[in-house]
Design brief:
Elements lengths: L1 E7 L10 E5 L2 E6 L4 E6 L2 E9 L2 E2 L3 E5 L4 E8 L3 H22 L8 H12 L7 E6 L1
Parallel strand pairs: 1-8
Antiparallel strand pairs: 1-4, 2-3, 2-5, 5-6, 5-7, 8-9
């Protein structure tokens, strides 16, 4: 029997949440942080995508040969591991400089981080998760 293997990376963002896996438009199951799951499929071409709430990944097409398996890597958006610490660091630095030197303009550096998150949660919601075939 052929299979699609989904490997979810271990990440901080959404670590307590499961992603839903869809194969050919049907929910095949859920995958937790750092897990690897096998989904039995018939040989041929299949469309795979992942979702979390209203956000998800772009749909990718995988070709599975008879008796073989295809591995798909699943992760959050590209800069997810840097976005939260960067935003928090800028805010902390802002308060430090505001209290010690009276410099209160650093807070404007948070705006691009905030706009990036707004984009991922609205227009780019189907790019919030990333699926890539592992060869």
């Amino acid at each position: 029997m052929s299979a699609i293997i989904v490997q979810r990376h271990n990440e901080y963002v959404n670590s307590n949440r499961s992603y839903r896996i869809f194969i050919d438009g049907v929910e095949a199951g859920k995958i937790g942080n750092g897990e690897t799951k096998n989904y039995a499929v018939a040989a041929g071409s299949h469309k795979v995508m992942a979702k979390i709430d209203w956000c998800g990944s772009e749909e990718i097409e995988v070709d599975v040969k008879e008796g073989e398996s295809v591995t798909v890597a699943l992760s959050g958006f590209r800069f997810s591991k840097w976005l939260t610490p960067l935003g928090s660091g800028i805010i902390a630095l802002h308060f430090f400089l505001d209290i010690t030197l009276g410099f209160s303009y650093l807070i404007f550096l948070v705006i691009p981080v905030f706009l990036g998150l707004i984009y991922l949660l609205t227009i780019g919601r189907n790019k919030y998760l990333r699926l890539r075939c592992s060869f």
